[in-house]
Amino acid sequence: MKKELFSVLASLGISLLILFGVNKCAFPLNVVHAAEDLESSIKIEDEYIIPDKFDWCTYYVLVATNNTGKDVEIDADFTAYNSEKSVVSLVHDRADAVKAGQRFILYGQFLNKNIKKGVSFAYSLNATETDNCTYNMVDIDTSSKEQCIEVSATNYSEKDIQGVGIRTLFTKNGKAVAFDTVNIADVGYIFRGGSTNSQIIGLNASDYDNYIITYISAGVENAQTF
């Protein structure tokens, strides 16, 4: 099984729930881009609409690379529109510290009950420079657990940082079949200096042949950054 493992430094706003989706189409025709670019140097590589298998929510997932040459924080708004172009749902995501050159994932999670009339989606991104990256403090490793994946994170520094947010896109024959997000921390969103912890991902994503993992991490308030 192939895998792509990419490091990224970002945000506190990581869901602690493990959530999965089942893909119907990659590069869907009903996706509408925001009128303005999210800083022209941030490259959107792929985008996917991924309904979850429980018919509870739908993910709009962006896979992107920070080509700005600077460490940045990114705010993302994801909007669902009905056929009359009226907004039916608006959700937010944030990456607190994405390193220059890093690949990362942003996503909007829409409750299906709110988008029954939603026929198109759009995103809007805003990036600003940051000095809050903690990339040099963290290491990530993965190992297979039958059809699942165990992701381990270690904070090699003596400083407490934010929990490491793991975002994973599972694909089959090039199409997204599931999306998963977990947080690796000790207490709440805090990842203690010297700690190693792990999470299992892909519990309901058994039918895949490849996956992309990005991880995001940033310093806590007043913590030293690297």
Molecular structure report:
Helix content is 0%, strand content 54%. A hairpin with a 2-residue loop joins strand 12 and strand 13. It folds into two domains: 93 residues, Sandwich (Immunoglobulin-like), CATH 2.60.40; 105 residues, Immunoglobulin-like, CATH 2.60.40.3230. The chain is mostly beta strands and 226 residues long. It is globular and about 55 Å long. A four-stranded mixed β-sheet has the order 1-16-12-13, with no helix packed on it. The chain has a four-stranded antiparallel β-sheet with strand order 2-3-4-7, with no helix packed on it. A three-stranded antiparallel β-sheet has the order 6-5-8, with no helix packed on it.
Number of domains: 2
Give the low-pLDDT segments. 1-27, 34-38, 222-226
In the CATH hierarchy, what is the architecture of the largest domain at level 2? Sandwich
Mean pLDDT: 82
Count the helices. How many? 0
Coarse structural class: mainly beta
Q: What is the number of E strands?
A: 16
The largest sheet has its strands arranged as 1-16-12-13
- Major sheet attributes: 4 strands, mixed
Shape: globular
Helix and strand arrangement:
Blueprint: E1 4-7, E2 25-26, E3 42-51, E4 57-66, E5 72-82, E6 87-98, E7 103-111, E8 118-129, E9 138-145, E10 148-155, E11 161-162, E12 164-172, E13 175-184, E14 190-191, E15 196-201, E16 210-216
Parallel strand pairs: 1-16
Antiparallel strand pairs: 2-3, 3-4, 4-7, 5-6, 5-8, 9-10, 10-15, 11-14, 12-13, 12-16
